[in-house]
Structure formats: C-alpha cells, structure tokens
Write a structure and sequence with these properties.
By secondary structure, the chain is of the alpha/beta class. It contains 11 helices and 5 strands; from the N terminus they run ααααααβββαβαβααα. It has a 5-stranded mixed sheet with strand order 3-2-1-4-5, sandwiched between helices. The longest helix has 19 residues. The protein starts with 6 loop residues before the first helix and ends in a 15-residue tail after the last helix.
C-alpha cells in the first residue's frame, strides 16, 4: 500500500485527506498525492498511531513552553525545558513539532556600543585577556552600558554580570551617562554578593575610568580590569547579554516613557533572565538554578525597582 521509506509522507497525506474528505473525492486526492485509496482506508480504520497521539500531547507542551518563554525559545531551549520536566525526546522531533505549528525562537543581532573612551584617563590593566572562564562565583564580573529607546528619550542601563553563572548581579537606570550610573550598578552587585577581590572587567568607557568608579572599587576591594582597545572580544559576554535583551525585549516592545522602560527591563532581568532563561553555556540551566545547584546557596532575594540614579 505504501512504498518502503515513504510511510511518514503517506501518513501526512492521509491526515490531509481525512480533513478534506468532505470537500474532495478520496480517489482524486489519492491520485494527486500519489498514495493508494486502500492505504488511506486501512489507515482510517486503524486510527492514529501511538506516535501521532504522542505528538499531539508533545505539541501542547512545546506550545506551552514557547509561550512561557515569551515567544523567544527555539528548539534547543524547549528541548531542555521538556527534559527538565521529565519528557525526554529528540531535539529534531521538537524542531519538527515547532515547524508544524509555525513556532520560532528569536535570533540575536550584534549589539552597538554605548560607552565613549576618555583618552586622557588612566586605564586599568587587562586581568582577563579574553579568558572569561570563571572557576566559581564572584571571581570575575563583567560590566557595560546600553540604552533603551522610548518615545520620551533614551533610558540608559548599566549591568554587572557574574561570568561564572551569567547572572545579572547588579544593574542601574539613569537618563544620563555620567559615572554615577556605573557606580550604582557596582554598588548593587557589592551589596548583593559581598565579594572578596573580585575582578571587574569592562571596556574603556569614561564612566569606568572615572575617579568616582575607581575610588569605589578600591574601597570595596574590587580589582578593575579593562580589555584592549578595538578588540571585538573585549567584553563579549556582556555584549551577548545586551544582544539578548535587545532581541527578546527591546525589539518586541515599544515603550512610551522611561518609567515604562525601567519596569520592563527590571521584569526582564529579575522576572525572566535570572530565574528562568536557559543558557547553552550553562548546559541549559538558568543562572539562579545554576548557582543553587553548583554553589549550594539559594540566590539572593530580588531587589525592588529602586536602583536608579535619576
């Protein structure tokens, strides 16, 4: 009834014919789709296969996780989420189910720099030298600044990430690019993590070479580090976070006011990125769960929306 190797294609054809039987003769559809009428009738009597029944339930799970991810997850992360829930299937099967429902993840674009170098400033040494592998928490932090466009103007966002877990451990908002923006983000990271001799890596932006930032680093025992000039990999980890923020939030939501942007970024970091978003570099764990699993310490309580410099 079905040629060897064509069973899956024939099943798809039979499923289509079943849905169109009221509009078109079976004989005509069989001829156009190049399947046999007897094969169709035998398939209809048998009912859906066990795999087809499973696909229905799996598709519901895939759709639920895709919606839970705010429409951002592709097949790898949905596959990881299903495995975490106890459903173990192949990644290719997840990709097929997504294609059948026209579900797609989002793709990151290259992030655009915001900081401007002060050529007269004294630079910190490069203590990282492109090696962003941290052996534990609070060994290496990476930091940078980006902006969120709104109808009322730009909101500037400074963040500090722990390179070990990819967790955003400090952040601050402002309507300007003065040094107090990055000092506020550093202050939050210090308050939450209470590090000892952590390396803080950034670019050569004037905010990070400022006297105020340098003084706060010395007071807290933080070791400033800055990459080489014109290096595309100078601060790739932080740029990767901003690219994620851009494609998963900024590109998808038009914000009217800076206050609305503050709330949206806050919810993205503390309501999604830290506690839920899975990272391929963490074996598809989210930052908070990765820390709890490998550090043995539950993440600190999420702060309220108050870390801003005006």
């Amino acid at each position: 009834m079905v040629r060897a190797g064509d069973r899956r294609d024939a099943t798809k054809a039979f499923e289509y014919m079943s849905g169109q039987e009221a509009q078109h003769p079976v004989a005509t559809m069989s001829r156009v789709l190049e399947v046999s009428r007897s094969g169709y009738y035998a398939w209809a009597e048998r009912g859906p296969s066990q795999r087809a029944v499973q696909d229905v339930a799996l598709t519901a799970g895939v759709q639920r996780i895709h919606e839970y991810s705010r429409g951002t997850y592709g097949a790898p992360r949905i596959h990881a989420e299903l495995a975490f829930e106890g459903t173990h299937i192949g990644r290719k099967r997840v990709a097929r189910l997504m294609r059948e429902k026209a579900l797609r993840g989002v793709s990151r674009r290259k992030w655009t720099t915001t900081t401007v170098r002060d050529r007269a400033a004294v630079l910190a040494p490069d203590l990282v030298k492109r090696d962003f592998r941290a052996q534990g928490p609070n060994r290496l932090w990476v930091a940078d600044i980006t902006y969120v466009p709104t109808w009322a103007g730009f909101l500037y966002v400074a963040v500090v990430l722990d390179a070990w877990s990819r967790r955003v451990v400090g952040w601050a908002f402002a309507f300007h690019l003065r040094a107090e923006l990055v000092v506020a983000a550093l202050e939050m990271a210090i308050r939450q993590r209470q590090p000892w001799a952590v390396v803080h890596h950034s670019d050569h932006g004037s905010q990070y070479t400022s006297i105020a930032f340098g003084n706060r680093c010395r007071e807290a025992g933080v070791q400033p580090s800055m990459g080489s000039v014109g290096d595309a990999y100078d601060n790739a980890m932080c740029e990767s976070f901003f690219a994620t923020l851009e494609c998963e939030l900024i590109d998808r939501v038009r914000m009217r006011t800076r206050e609305e942007a503050e709330q949206a970024v806050f919810e993205f970091i503390e309501g999604w990125y830290n506690p839920h978003r899975r990272h391929s570099s963490l074996n598809y764990e989210c930052p908070n769960r990765y820390e709890e699993k490998h550090w043995g310490v539950a993440p600190a309580t999420s702060p309220d929306l108050s870390t801003e410099t005006g």
